[in-house]
Amino acid sequence: MITVAPDAWNQVADGDIKLDLLSIILDSAQMPTTLIGDAPVEVSAMQSKILYVLIANLEQICPIKVLHEVATNRPYEGNPSVVRTHMNHLRTKLPDPYSDRIMTVRKKGFLMLRTKPVVAIA
Predict the structure, then answer these.
(1) How many CB atoms lie within 10 A of CB 108?
(2) pLDDT per position as a tens digit, 1-15
(3) Residue 66 in contact with residue 54, Cβ under 8 Å?
(4) Residue 2 belongs to some domain of the structure
């Protein structure tokens, strides 16, 4: 179950949201800069909101609808391209191993893993 309401990000003042998990520090007062390990990473407001939902719901599938509503503060109208585009940009900005922790769950949404996935070679 997703623990972040779609309008949660918009109901807080700057500095009220601060997550420190997996060496990712996401602080609403410091947006658009997110601290990944020791390096600051510039992310857009939408990407910050998407990352917030993924971290707050670690290892749970976050539906595209929820990610869209949090990121845009508008109702989801059935077009996943906004979320997918921002997710792709976010993945390119995040350093390894963080970008590899964001997984796509086909036709459902995205999730962030606590550890980098292990790929078995057959």
Answers:
(1) 11
(2) 444 444 444 444 444
(3) no
(4) no
Strands ordered across the beta sheet of 102-105: 62-63, 109-112, 102-105
Helix axes 81-93, 64-72, angle to 10 degrees: 80
Is residue 36, in this structure, part of any structural domain at all?
yes
Q: Which domain holds residue 13?
A: 9-112
Is residue 97 in a domain? yes
The number of folded domains in the chain is 1
Split at pLDDT 50, 70, 90, the class of 65 is very high
> What is the C-alpha to C-alpha distance for residues 48 and 5, in angstroms, rounded to an integer?
15
What token pair was written down for 28?
A: 């609403």
Average pLDDT over residues 17-24: 51
pTM: 0.72
Sequence letter at residue 119? V
